[in-house]
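We include the entry.

. . .
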Amino acid sequence: MRLVMLFGFTSLLVLALPCGAAEEGAVPSQRQLREACSMSGSQADLNACLREKLGHSQHAVERAESALFAAFEQWDESAEQVRTGQGRARAARQSFIEYRERQCALATSVGGGAIGHALETRRLACTAELNYQRAQQLEALALELRARPSS
Protein backbone atom coordinates (compact mmCIF):
# COMPACT_ATOMS: atom_id res chain seq x y z
CA MET A 1 0.00 0.00 0.00
CA ARG A 2 2.80 2.35 0.95
CA LEU A 3 4.62 1.62 -2.32
CA VAL A 4 1.46 2.39 -4.29
CA MET A 5 1.05 5.68 -2.42
CA LEU A 6 4.70 6.58 -3.03
CA PHE A 7 4.40 5.75 -6.73
CA GLY A 8 1.22 7.82 -6.97
CA PHE A 9 2.88 10.76 -5.24
CA THR A 10 5.95 10.50 -7.49
CA SER A 11 3.70 10.40 -10.55
CA LEU A 12 1.98 13.57 -9.39
CA LEU A 13 5.33 15.28 -8.95
CA VAL A 14 6.40 14.29 -12.44
CA LEU A 15 3.10 15.49 -13.87
CA ALA A 16 3.49 18.79 -12.04
CA LEU A 17 6.85 19.54 -13.68
CA PRO A 18 6.76 22.21 -16.36
CA CYS A 19 6.55 20.92 -19.90
CA GLY A 20 10.00 20.07 -21.20
CA ALA A 21 11.58 19.94 -17.75
CA ALA A 22 13.98 17.06 -17.53
CA GLU A 23 16.77 15.83 -15.35
CA GLU A 24 20.18 17.30 -16.06
CA GLY A 25 21.77 15.16 -18.74
CA ALA A 26 18.50 13.46 -19.66
CA VAL A 27 17.87 12.91 -23.35
CA PRO A 28 14.77 14.70 -24.64
CA SER A 29 12.16 12.35 -26.07
CA GLN A 30 10.63 12.74 -29.50
CA ARG A 31 7.48 14.04 -27.88
CA GLN A 32 9.41 16.60 -25.81
CA LEU A 33 11.26 17.77 -28.92
CA ARG A 34 8.00 18.16 -30.86
CA GLU A 35 6.36 19.97 -27.93
CA ALA A 36 9.35 22.30 -27.54
CA CYS A 37 8.98 23.32 -31.18
CA SER A 38 5.18 23.37 -31.28
CA MET A 39 5.02 27.03 -30.28
CA SER A 40 6.78 27.92 -33.53
CA GLY A 41 3.53 28.57 -35.39
CA SER A 42 2.98 26.81 -38.69
CA GLN A 43 3.89 23.24 -39.56
CA ALA A 44 6.78 24.57 -41.66
CA ASP A 45 8.03 26.57 -38.65
CA LEU A 46 7.72 23.48 -36.45
CA ASN A 47 9.85 21.49 -38.87
CA ALA A 48 12.38 24.32 -39.15
CA CYS A 49 12.71 24.29 -35.35
CA LEU A 50 13.14 20.51 -35.37
CA ARG A 51 15.77 20.76 -38.11
CA GLU A 52 17.66 23.14 -35.84
CA LYS A 53 17.42 20.66 -32.95
CA LEU A 54 18.53 17.91 -35.31
CA GLY A 55 21.58 19.99 -36.21
CA HIS A 56 22.40 20.46 -32.53
CA SER A 57 22.01 16.74 -31.91
CA GLN A 58 24.29 15.90 -34.84
CA HIS A 59 26.93 18.27 -33.47
CA ALA A 60 26.59 16.56 -30.09
CA VAL A 61 27.27 13.18 -31.74
CA GLU A 62 30.27 14.58 -33.61
CA ARG A 63 31.73 16.11 -30.43
CA ALA A 64 31.20 12.86 -28.53
CA GLU A 65 32.84 10.84 -31.32
CA SER A 66 35.81 13.21 -31.30
CA ALA A 67 36.08 12.86 -27.53
CA LEU A 68 35.99 9.07 -27.83
CA PHE A 69 38.70 8.99 -30.49
CA ALA A 70 40.82 11.39 -28.44
CA ALA A 71 40.38 9.13 -25.42
CA PHE A 72 41.49 6.16 -27.51
CA GLU A 73 44.62 8.11 -28.50
CA GLN A 74 45.43 8.65 -24.80
CA TRP A 75 44.52 5.09 -23.82
CA ASP A 76 47.30 3.28 -22.01
CA GLU A 77 47.04 0.13 -24.12
CA SER A 78 48.96 -1.33 -27.02
CA ALA A 79 48.72 0.31 -30.43
CA GLU A 80 46.87 -2.78 -31.63
CA GLN A 81 44.23 -2.39 -28.89
CA VAL A 82 43.83 1.29 -29.76
CA ARG A 83 43.38 0.48 -33.47
CA THR A 84 40.89 -2.26 -32.61
CA GLY A 85 38.86 0.09 -30.42
CA GLN A 86 38.87 2.83 -33.03
CA GLY A 87 37.90 0.36 -35.77
CA ARG A 88 35.00 -0.88 -33.69
CA ALA A 89 33.91 2.69 -33.03
CA ARG A 90 33.84 3.35 -36.79
CA ALA A 91 31.85 0.16 -37.42
CA ALA A 92 29.45 1.06 -34.61
CA ARG A 93 28.98 4.52 -36.16
CA GLN A 94 27.87 2.96 -39.44
CA SER A 95 25.58 0.48 -37.65
CA PHE A 96 24.06 3.32 -35.64
CA ILE A 97 23.33 5.33 -38.79
CA GLU A 98 21.60 2.32 -40.37
CA TYR A 99 19.66 1.60 -37.17
CA ARG A 100 18.62 5.26 -36.85
CA GLU A 101 17.30 5.34 -40.41
CA ARG A 102 15.24 2.17 -39.89
CA GLN A 103 13.99 3.14 -36.45
CA CYS A 104 12.91 6.58 -37.62
CA ALA A 105 11.20 5.09 -40.67
CA LEU A 106 9.20 3.03 -38.18
CA ALA A 107 8.47 6.10 -36.04
CA THR A 108 7.37 7.96 -39.16
CA SER A 109 5.02 5.14 -40.16
CA VAL A 110 3.20 5.56 -36.84
CA GLY A 111 1.96 8.84 -38.34
CA GLY A 112 -0.24 6.77 -40.65
CA GLY A 113 -1.88 8.68 -43.46
CA ALA A 114 -0.78 12.11 -42.29
CA ILE A 115 0.53 14.48 -44.92
CA GLY A 116 4.24 14.98 -45.63
CA HIS A 117 4.98 17.81 -43.17
CA ALA A 118 3.51 15.90 -40.24
CA LEU A 119 5.44 12.77 -41.16
CA GLU A 120 8.61 14.83 -41.51
CA THR A 121 8.00 16.16 -37.99
CA ARG A 122 8.06 12.62 -36.67
CA ARG A 123 11.24 11.74 -38.61
CA LEU A 124 13.10 14.85 -37.47
CA ALA A 125 12.18 14.37 -33.79
CA CYS A 126 13.11 10.68 -33.91
CA THR A 127 16.48 11.37 -35.51
CA ALA A 128 17.32 14.10 -33.00
CA GLU A 129 16.33 11.93 -30.03
CA LEU A 130 18.46 9.01 -31.20
CA ASN A 131 21.39 11.33 -31.90
CA TYR A 132 21.21 12.73 -28.38
CA GLN A 133 21.08 9.18 -26.98
CA ARG A 134 24.08 8.18 -29.07
CA ALA A 135 26.05 11.23 -27.98
CA GLN A 136 25.36 10.36 -24.34
CA GLN A 137 26.54 6.76 -24.90
CA LEU A 138 29.74 7.88 -26.61
CA GLU A 139 30.48 10.46 -23.92
CA ALA A 140 30.13 7.75 -21.26
CA LEU A 141 32.56 5.49 -23.13
CA ALA A 142 35.08 8.32 -23.50
CA LEU A 143 34.85 9.06 -19.76
CA GLU A 144 35.34 5.39 -18.99
CA LEU A 145 38.44 5.21 -21.20
CA ARG A 146 39.94 8.30 -19.55
CA ALA A 147 39.16 6.98 -16.06
CA ARG A 148 40.93 3.65 -16.57
CA PRO A 149 44.00 3.29 -14.44
CA SER A 150 47.32 2.85 -16.21
CA SER A 151 48.50 -0.72 -16.69
Remarks:
- The chain has a mean pLDDT of 84.
- The CA atoms of residues 77 and 84 lie 11 Å apart.
- Helices lie at 2-16, 30-37, 43-74, 79-109, 116-147.
- The chain has one domain: 42-147.
